[in-house]
Structures are given as C-alpha cells and as structure tokens.
Design a protein that fits this description.
Blueprint: E1 3-7, H1 15-26, E2 31-34, H2 44-47, E3 51-53, H3 62-65, H4 73-78, E4 87-92, E5 106-111, H5 122-126, H6 128-131, H7 133-152, E6 159-162, H8 165-175, E7 180-181, E8 202-205, H9 214-224, E9 228-231, H10 237-243, E10 248-252, H11 256-265, E11 268-271, H12 279-286, E12 291-294, H13 299-302, E13 309-312, H14 317-328, H15 334-342, H16 346-362
Parallel strand pairs: 1-2, 1-4, 2-3, 4-5, 5-6, 6-7, 8-9, 8-11, 9-10, 11-12, 12-13
C-alpha cells in the first residue's frame, strides 16, 4: 500500500509539523506533499522523506511570503498528483484537506482547524485595524469565496480526526461532519523538569501572528508588573515590539532545547489567545511549570484550573493581570503537572492514530464519517 502525507506548508517546526513528524515515524516509507517547503526548516525526520511541492514553490520568494499567495492555494493543492497512492493522510489547518485523491484511495484528515481567517477569525487577520479599510474590503469577498470552497471540499475526506473537542465542534459547525478527537503528540520524554528554580518572569512561546493575542500578554504583564519573555517569530513581530515596554524581551525563534530551558526558568507560561489545542501549555506542564490561559478552546482540555494553572474568562489585560496574581498563590505540584501532561504523550497519539487509520481502511470506500 502506497501512502502519502499532505501538509499545508513546511516552513518551521510548529505544532502541525510536530504532528507530521510523529506520523512519519508511523509510516516511514510515505511521501510528503506540501504547498511550499523551505529546505532545512523542519526536523531531519521530515527532511529525510521525499518531499514534493506545489507550483507555488516556484513563485518569487515563496518560502518567505507564501501567505501572500493564499488565493492560489485551492488550485495548487488540487493539482498535486496523488494518483499513485492508496491512502492519503492530510495534516490540515488551511488547504491540505482539499487534496484530490484517486477513487480507490482513502483520505483521512487530521484537522488542526478549519481555515480560521475564512470563517470566524476574519477580523483578527484582515480587519481594518490590521490592514486598513481598503484592504479589508478587498479581502472580504476573497475570504468568503475561500470559505465556500473550504466547505465544498469537505466531502473529499473519508474520515476527519480533530486535535481537540473544540476543533471537532468547529468541524461540525463549518463542514457538517463528525470528527473523532486524537490529541496531538507532546514529547513528554524530552520536556521534563530540570531542577532550576522558577524565576520572577512569565513566558510566551508562540508564532507571532494576530490571533495568538501576544498583545494581550504584553498588556496583562504590564498591568501585573511582571516581566515577560516572548519566544517565537512571525509577521506580527514589529507591531508587537512597538507595543512592548522595557519589561518585555523578544527571544526570536529558539531550538527545542532552548525552549525547554525557557520553560524551566519561568514562573509560569501564558496562553493569551483561544487555541484550537495549544501544545505549549502541555509542554510547560511536562517541565513542571503552571499555565495562565484564556478559558477558551483547547485550554479547557489541557489546563486544570486551580491545579495545573489558572484560567481567566475575559480577554482583557485586567483579567489576565488578576490571573497572574492568582498564579502567585498556586501551589502547583510537579507530579500533578507531569501526570496532566502525560495524557497527551506521543505514545498515546501514535496508538490512537494507528487505530483510527486502520478503522478508516476497514470501512466501506463510499463511507464518510
């Protein structure tokens, strides 16, 4: 049986790429298809696979400004040649789930989220305050078209797997499809406590994009009078640097070892936005550090309020600052934090993923669920 993975783009090792890395370990002979590949940007386990890219790879500066080619993604993903494959596993938060597979093949989609900016997060990406009124007006019909395309291509998938119950509800809402929850893998063997004493600062580990709400973390820490360190990079960095005061340190993109060290040295980790799952809170807990998180999305599945962290209800600087104050009185037990993280171990992911794919292969070819 020939197997192919389809992933939106390979330009860095973020949560979605860590899922792909785990999938590659399950099916090491599979080929990888993607819209754009920046060579050397992902782990050796992925780089060692045969990676095939779309026509977008040949466009000017594609590996740096691929997001600017968003309207071309539908055509590019549909042009990928998957005719030789019997099983296609897409890892999708944008266009990968719309890959066209041959009639004899099964298509299992591990969905990180339906396309956020085309559905319910347009303002966070393309609102007037972000891009200006003229650009907002231009983007609105494009995103409406993308949403129709996104929903219309959902029947191409035989089985949806969601990375959280929150995303499963979004799949039901936007695609009208059920999805089984398979939590993404967290390397709890790598992310472990190191024995360092906790510092006085808090930490954010994130891509610097609007919906992550790093601006809220900056404002909340300023209100609480607590230093903040920000690990990650992205298109929102310059705007965030303008917002930040002297108490905020931008660290840029770090290696996994450096991120682990940052977890171990922080008093706690902030998750300021609504995440579909949010792998960072689990990595932090695996390192013995509690989490301050907005009580939305995946955080409700990964953070136990009052035990492994503190949840805050309103996305405001005042609410976040109040949560930071509560964190100071939280007696987070290292064993409890580790046990909470182990629920999302890589071994559990691989076991559940293998079982879900086997079920899809055993089901009638015409069945969609």
């Amino acid at each position: 049986m020939r197997i192919a993975f389809v992933h939106d783009w390979l330009t860095g090792m973020r949560g979605g790429e860590k899922v792909l890395e785990a999938l590659v370990s399950l099916w090491p002979d599979a080929d990888v298809f993607t819209l754009v590949h920046a060579r050397g940007s992902v782990s050796p386990a992925i780089e060692a696979r045969r990676i095939r890219t779309s026509a977008i790879q040949r466009l000017p500066a594609a590996t740096r400004v691929y997001r600017h080619y968003l309207p071309l993604f539908p055509a590019a993903i549909e042009m990928l040649d998957l005719d030789a494959y019997d099983l296609v596993i897409s890892s999708s938060h944008c266009a990968a789930k719309a890959a066209v597979v041959p009639g004899r093949a099964r298509h299992v989609c591990y969905c990180h989220s339906p396309m956020r900016y085309a559905w319910d997060q347009f303002a966070e990406y393309f609102g007037a305050e972000r891009v200006g009124r003229a650009a907002e007006a231009a983007y609105r019909p494009v995103m409406a078209w993308l949403a129709r395309w996104d929903a219309g291509t959902a029947p191409r998938v035989h089985r949806f797997l969601a990375n959280s119950a929150f995303v499963a509800s979004r799949i039901r809402r936007f695609y009208g499809r059920a999805a089984s929850v398979v939590y993404p893998p967290v390397d709890t063997e790598f992310f472990q406590p190191g024995g360092e004493p906790a510092g006085d600062h808090l930490l954010v580990v994130s891509a610097l994009v609007p919906y992550k709400r790093i601006d809220l973390a900056i404002a909340g820490c300023r209100a609480a009078g607590v230093p903040l360190r920000v690990a990650g990079d992205g298109p929102d960095q310059k705007r965030l640097e303008r917002l930040a005061g002297p108490g905020v340190t931008f660290l840029g993109r770090l290696t996994d070892e450096q991120v682990r060290d940052e977890y171990r040295r922080a008093r706690g980790v902030i998750l300021p936005g609504a995440e579909d799952f949010g792998i960072v809170p689990v990595e932090a807990q695996a390192c013995g550090r509690p989490v301050v998180a907005l009580a939305r999305g995946g955080a409700l599945e990964t953070v136990i309020d009052g035990q492994t962290g503190v949840l805050f209800e309103r996305a405001s600087a005042e609410a976040l600052a109040e949560a930071v104050g509560r964190l100071a009185s939280l007696r987070a037990d290292a064993a409890l934090l580790r046990a909470a993280a182990e629920r999302f171990s890589k071994a559990r992911f691989l076991e559940r993923m293998r079982a879900a794919v086997d079920e899809a292969l055993a089901a009638p070819l015409e069945e969609r669920w």
